[in-house]
Write a structure and sequence with these properties.
The strands form two sheets. Strands 3-2-1-4-6-7-9 form a seven-stranded parallel beta sheet, sandwiched between helices. The protein has a two-stranded parallel sheet with strand order 5-8. Helix 4 (97-125) runs parallel beside helix 5 (146-166). It contains nine helices and nine strands. The radius of gyration is 19 Å and the shape is globular. The protein has two domains: 4-240, Rossmann fold (3-Layer(aba) Sandwich); 244-271, no CATH class. Helices cover 51% and strands 15% of the residues. The chain has helices at residues 13-24, 40-46, 60-74, 97-125, 146-166, 200-212, 218-230, 242-261, 263-270; strands at residues 4-7, 28-33, 50-54, 79-82, 88-89, 128-133, 171-178, 191-192, 237-240. The longest helix has 29 residues, at 97-125. The N and C termini lie far apart (57 Å). The protein is of the alpha/beta class and 271 residues long.
Length: 271
């Protein structure tokens, strides 16, 4: 059956590949971007199967209007992908109030506005799948991207609660947690705080770490998303990339070991 997608942040990177793979197999896609001219080539290729929508996800009223326009055009809504977002680089001390607020407005509140606008349609249908594009950085944290982590940890917590609320209504929720991919996430798409010299060694270490990692392929990620949305019982969380599958084991092993080591204080606090 042809599926109807609504995908934010489709001008480039993973969002664009998600849209292409859905369109290639005959699905219909409402694709949002701040600049819809970036979608002109897809419109030329796929015609009426693609609905390009100019959207800034921080504009709640515009989000609601775009969801309504999608439903009016295609008659239903099957898969909602919250992909819009960006990375902000800066040590916690370097962050300005406007920088952290902007990060949260796009990465967290933008996704929340989409979810709230889509849910009445999905509830009425008794079906649907909300896909939240998170990151391995929604599970663990690394220096110099604290604002980004804050936004994604918030998205993870909200989405896990959401899954329990809407599961009985026939609606699935999946958090996709990619590692590094060959996109411009750390390039033109990112923002940076004014640097303090004291944190330069941390930045250099993180740059070296990223440089040593093999990035994933957005094209194959676009293919993989189809397996996720086609599953009868899709996962709440799924890692994208071979790197995260090893990283997450180390993250949780470290947490479990620390909790176990300090369990005596946990019991003491209980009274």
């Amino acid at each position: 059956m042809t599926k109807i997608w609504y995908i934010t942040g489709t001008s480039r990177g993973l969002g664009r590949e998600f849209a292409i793979n859905a369109l290639e197999r005959g699905d219909r896609v409402a694709a949002t971007a701040r600049d819809v001219t970036s979608l002109d080539d897809l419109v030329a290729t796929y015609g009426d199967a693609l609905l390009p929508l100019a959207l800034d996800v921080t504009d709640k009223a515009a989000v609601e209007a775009s969801i309504a326009q999608t439903h009016e055009r295609f008659g239903r809504l099957d898969i909602v992908v919250n992909n819009a977002g960006y990375g902000h680089f800066g040590a916690v001390e370097e962050l300005t109030e406007s920088e952290i607020r902007d990060q949260m407005e796009t990465n967290f509140f933008g996704a929340l506005w989409v979810v709230q606008a889509a849910l009445p349609i999905l509830r009425a249908q008794g079906s649907g799948h909300i896909v939240q594009i998170s990151t391995i950085g929604g599970i663990g944290a690394f220096p110099n991207i604290g604002a980004y982590h804050a936004s994604k940890w918030a998205l993870e917590g909200m989405s896990e609660a959401l899954a329990q609320e809407v599961g009985p209504l026939g609606i699935h929720v999946t958090l996709v947690e990619p590692g590094g991919f060959s996109t411009d996430w750390a390039g033109d798409s990112s923002k940076r705080s004014a640097p303090m010299d004291v944190y330069e060694p941390v930045r250099e270490a993180m740059a070296a770490r990223r440089g040593a990692q093999k990035p994933g392929n957005p094209v194959t990620a676009g293919q993989a998303i189809l397996d996720v949305v086609d599953a009868d019982e899709p996962p709440l969380r799924v890692l994208f990339g071979s790197g995260p599958t090893e990283m997450v084991k180390a993250i949780y092993a470290s947490r479990l070991a620390t909790w176990d080591e300090w369990s005596w204080i946990s019991h003491k606090a209980q009274g």
